[in-house]
Structures are given as C-alpha cells and as structure tokens.
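in:
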C-alpha cells in the first residue's frame, strides 16, 4: 500500500516527483524517496518519514535530471527505515525500482538470486525486483531497444502477488519501463513529457489525458513516446481517456485540510451523483439491463465492502430490501471471503469501494464471480482495479477523495445505492410509482439540506471544545440511525483517537448501560418517526444515570419532543427516512473533525491508517 510517481521530460524531475508524492501521501507516509537519472547515473535519495522531509534534503534540490521515479511507503515487509525505503537498486547499481504491492514469493526468489551471487541490503520484498531484472537483462545477448522490456517481463513473470512498478535502467538512460498487476498505475500524456502515478489526482495539474494500464501490460516511455506491449510483448496501440476533473478538485482550495474541504463538497458530490442517474423522475441504470424476470429470480443481494463503504451498505440495506423485496445481507469483505458464503447465479453481489483498490473487496468479488453471481462495483475511481473485474461498474461522482477518513464518498455511495434500489423497484414494479417519485423529489433537495447543515457549525464547535478531552464517547440510534451511529463512531475514533462505540439503542439494556455513569458522553440520533418514542425512552434511561447527551434530531421530530431534557441538540432538516443517514452524518463528521482539530491532530493523515488498503 504505497504511492508511486514517475516523470520523463525536459523539466527538472525532482520537484514534479515531490509534488506528486505529496498528493499520494494518503496511500502511505512512513518513508519516501526518489531516483533521478543524471549524467548516465541513477541518483537515489530516500529516508524514513513523510514526503515533506525530502524537501529538506539539499542533494534533492541539486538534482538536475529530467527523468525520475518516486515512492511514498506504507510498510508491509520491513520496518520504516532509510534502507527499506524505495527506490531500491539491484546489488550492481544498474536498475532502480519503485513498487506498490506485495511480492508473496520474495523469500524463495531472494534465495535463488543469492545462489546466483546477488546480495541484498533491505528487509523488503521489493528488492528482489531490480535484482531479478538485472539477472534477466544480463542473460539476454540481444542488445536491441526492447532488451530492457524483455528483462522486466521475465522478472515480473516470476512474481507472485501484486505490483505496480517503475523501472529506471542505467544502460537505457532515456527511457522508463512500467508494468502493473492488481495494483493501480496510470500514465499521463503530456507534450514532449510523460507522467506516471498511482492515481490521477497526483498528476492532474499537468495533463488530463491518461492511459490506464491493464494487468500485465507493459509501457516503455520516452520523452516523446509511449509504447505499449501486451503480456507476450506484442506491441499495440492504446486510446487515451480524457478526464473531466479539474486540478482544483484535488487541491485544498483554501480549506485547512482535505477532510474539511471534502465535507463541504458533499452537496456537489450528491448533486452530481444524482445528476448522472435521474432523468424526468426516472432512475436510469441502462447499462445493467436488468429485467423483471432476473430481479425476481434473485434469492439474495449482498453488499460487500470495508470500513466506511461497509457502513454505506448498512445505511441502505433496508432500503434495497424494501424496494427489491429480496433479502439483503451486508458483509465485511475480509470476513465474507473466508467463510464459504452461500452465493450462486441467483445472488447479486454489490461491492462498495471508494478507491476500487481495496484488496479484500476485490478478492471477495473474484470469489463471487467464481460462484457465478452477477457483480456490480460501486466506486468513485474510473478505471480502478475493481472496475475491470466486476460485471458492471457504476460510479459515484464525488471527485477525488484525498483525506484518509472518508466523508463525501460515504454520502455519495448512499445516494447512488438508493437510486439503484429505486431502479430495482421501477423494474420490478414493486413499489407505488408516486412513492418512488416522492423519494426522487426528496433526493433532488438533499444538496440544499446538506448545505444548510454546513452553514450551522457554531454549536458543533462549542460541543467539540467540551468533548475533546474525553476518553470514551458512545453513539446510539435505531434502524438507519444505528447505521449512521456506526459511521459517526468510526469517524471520531479514526481521526481523534478517542475510544468510541456505537450501539443499537435497544441493545443498551443488554450490557452497555453498565458503562454509563455521571459525565459519560452519549450521542444519539433520532430521525425515524416510528422509532422516536423507543429511542427517547432509551436516552432517558441514560440521562437518569448521569450521561451528557448530544442529540441529532430532525426538525420535525424535534418539534414534538421536550428537548430540554438533552444536554445539546443539533437539528437537521427532515428528509425521507431512506436518505436520513446523509443529513445526520454531516454534523457528526464535522463534530469528529472539530474534536480532532481541538486536539491538534493531523486529520488528513491519522496515525497507522492509509486511504487505500491494497493489502490484506
Ligand atoms: C480504508 C480507509 C477508509 C475506507 C476503507 C475502504 O480503511 O481509511 O476510509 O472506508 O479503507 O476503502 P474503499 O476505497 O474500499 O472504500
């Protein structure tokens, strides 16, 4: 789980590489390094710590080379240290490699290479790659222009695992070779210069024309050309994709942090996600082409994901069930894939993943395909790994999400999945048309409601000031509000490091209430008319035991309650129950954010976490 960048052109490579790495730090930030080709020599500078440390290395500032590769690391094999940082060179200093992924058979390969006289400096799996390339390069007697690509091909064929790699070769100082398998890599096409990165935002300020490499496709880049080769090294032409995101989308745009910017981008993200799917009051998912016959034949729908994306699944489970009349199960991808799930051709499996790169989610999808289920990927990243594996890919239009803690992806995922469930109901004719129209109408008004919440942050900031020294915070709700409580609790713990738990309000009496005593902070959510009385009675039980209560309640329900009994009340606009997570999670995202800021923490890059978990 790392980020890689490459540049080949006529400008100084180092500043471009460092800027790209800074944008990729969400993929890992325990060490970083660059290698630049200069006067026929490969010069490597790397160290433990964040990318910003590299800016202080004078030798990097002095590098004039115009070709280079770079890496920001999240350690998997070997502790974060200078020697384990990338780029790695072979023991004869001929090739430099940066690698994102994991090589599972590196121990065997290392032994084999050691028997051939190669030696190793680091504890990493990656170091076998430049040495293998050296091995195959030296065995090749045909010194033509493709010798380096052949060596990379033979080396990568030996690797078991996942990789996106960039290779510099001392003997071939004007080219760079790249290849990927199950790890992301994009090539940006410029004028007399070309760029490489793990994702598009890292190089979006230089170009909008991108090539997406498929598994085991090789690219040989020079300043003026990009040549593509398939797995048998047969050359082929590839069409570039033009991206409509603008570079501002991937910058902070005046906000202190990406997370705050992304929270504020939610009205736009929701609006754009709806915009692509709703036409004249009808939800369109034409590419799926599902028939009434197919949808009625389903015995089960699975929503499979990790982290916040899994919480989006929880928030729409009952909606999809109600609309499709099919049993819906939400599963954690890392659990699902190892429990021999009951999946067959009558199962529809929907995978939710912002990045489209989460290893467990992709593995779960492959398993479902083996069992003949239809698969849909719900993702935010065009061309991401999951989109190439799934039968169908449908996209949220949240724009790049950079902060590790997911916000706008979550609300966009719920938006898209509610739209998908309406599409199911349209095809199945299972829900009254007027009701569907009413939900769509409510959806179109959602961005305005979220905007209203975003303008009202004074009270949340005050609550954050009172809460930031807490050791434990509890969240509770019923139905969809319980799903939101789970996401809100995750937000708090991941960025503020405060221990927090979420509970279904009705479960309180079965254990959790033992933890409630004077001064304990409990956050309650109430948006469901049918469950108000029950939840309020649970909250009263904890008030009696001295809890400090912060309630998120919709405006209509608030009018019917004696809100004086609660310590703090935040009201949100009322909306259709299926959409309520979207309006209630926003103040809770903000609360977590303000608490983390009060604690002086780096909200965009919480400790021990990475944005894309591309390893198990
Ligand atoms: C990591 C991120 C979370 C994210 C989860 C799933 O844990 O820190 O924010 O929800 O991965 O990521 P995905 O890209 O599959 O949605």
């Amino acid at each position: 789980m790392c980020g890689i960048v490459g540049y080949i052109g006529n400008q100084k490579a180092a500043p471009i590489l460092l800027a790209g790495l800074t944008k990729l730090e969400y993929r890992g930030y325990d060490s970083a390094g660059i290698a630049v080709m200069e006067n026929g020599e490969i010069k490597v500078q790397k160290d433990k710590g964040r990318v910003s440390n590299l800016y202080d290395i004078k030798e990097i500032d002095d590098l004039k080379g115009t070709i280079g590769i770079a890496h920001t690391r999240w350690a998997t094999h070997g502790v974060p240290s200078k020697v384990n940082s990338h780029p790695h060179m072979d023991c004869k200093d001929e090739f430099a490699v940066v690698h994102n992924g994991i090589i599972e058979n590196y121990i065997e390969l290392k032994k084999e290479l050691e028997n051939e006289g190669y030696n190793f400096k680091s504890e990493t799996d990656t170091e076998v790659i430049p040495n293998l390339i050296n091995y195959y390069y030296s065995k090749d007697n045909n010194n033509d222009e493709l010798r380096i690509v052949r060596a990379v091909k033979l080396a990568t064929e030996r690797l078991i695992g996942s990789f996106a790699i960039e290779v510099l070769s001392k003997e071939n100082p004007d080219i760079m070779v790249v290849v990927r398998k199950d790890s992301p890599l994009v090539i940006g096409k410029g004028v007399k210069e070309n760029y490489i990165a793990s994702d598009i935002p890292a190089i979006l300020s230089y170009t909008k024309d991108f090539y997406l490499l498929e598994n085991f496709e090789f690219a040989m880049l020079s300043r003026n050309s990009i040549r593509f080769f398939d797995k048998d090294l047969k050359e082929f032409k590839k069409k570039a994709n033009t991206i409509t995101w603008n570079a501002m989308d991937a910058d902070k745009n005046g906000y202190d942090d990406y997370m705050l910017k992304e929270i504020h981008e939610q009205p736009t993200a929701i609006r754009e996600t709806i915009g692509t799917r709703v036409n004249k009051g009808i939800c369109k998912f034409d590419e799926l082409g599902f028939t009434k016959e197919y949808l009625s034949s389903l015995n089960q729908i699975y929503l499979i994901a990790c982290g916040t994306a899994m919480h989006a699944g929880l928030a729409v489970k009952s909606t999809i069930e109600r609309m499709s009349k099919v049993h819906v199960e939400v599963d954690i991808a890392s659990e699902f894939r190892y429990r021999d799930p009951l999946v067959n051709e009558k199962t529809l499996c929907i995978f939710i993943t912002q990045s489209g790169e989460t290893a467990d989610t992709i593995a779960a999808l492959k398993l479902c395909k083996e069992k003949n289920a239809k698969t849909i990927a719900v993702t935010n990243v065009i061309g991401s790994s999951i989109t190439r594996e799934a039968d169908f890919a449908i996209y949220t239009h949240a724009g790049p999400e950079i902060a590790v803690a997911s916000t706008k992806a979550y609300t966009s995922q719920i938006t898209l999945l509610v739209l998908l469930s309406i599409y199911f109901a349209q095809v199945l004719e299972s829900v009254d048309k007027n009701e569907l129209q009413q939900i769509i109408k409510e959806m179109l008004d959602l961005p305005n409601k979220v905007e209203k919440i975003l303008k009202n942050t004074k009270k949340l900031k005050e609550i954050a000031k009172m809460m930031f020294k807490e050791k434990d915070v509890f969240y509770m709700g019923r139905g969809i509000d319980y799903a939101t409580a789970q996401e809100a609790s995750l937000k708090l713990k991941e960025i503020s490091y405060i221990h927090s738990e979420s509970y279904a309000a009705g479960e309180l009496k079965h254990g959790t209430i033992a933890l409630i005593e004077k001064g304990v902070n409990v956050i309650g959510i109430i948006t469901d008319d049918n469950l108000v009385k029950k939840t309020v009675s649970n909250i009263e039980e904890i008030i009696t035991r001295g809890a400090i209560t912060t309630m998120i309640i919709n405006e209509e329900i608030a009018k019917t309650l004696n809100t004086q009994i609660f310590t703090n009340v935040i009201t949100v606009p009322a909306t259709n129950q299926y959409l309520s997570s979207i309006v209630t999670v926003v103040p809770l995202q903000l609360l977590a954010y303000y608490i983390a800021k009060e604690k002086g923490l780096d909200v965009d890059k919480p400790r021990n976490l990475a944005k894309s978990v591309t390893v198990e």
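note: The radius of gyration is 26 Å.
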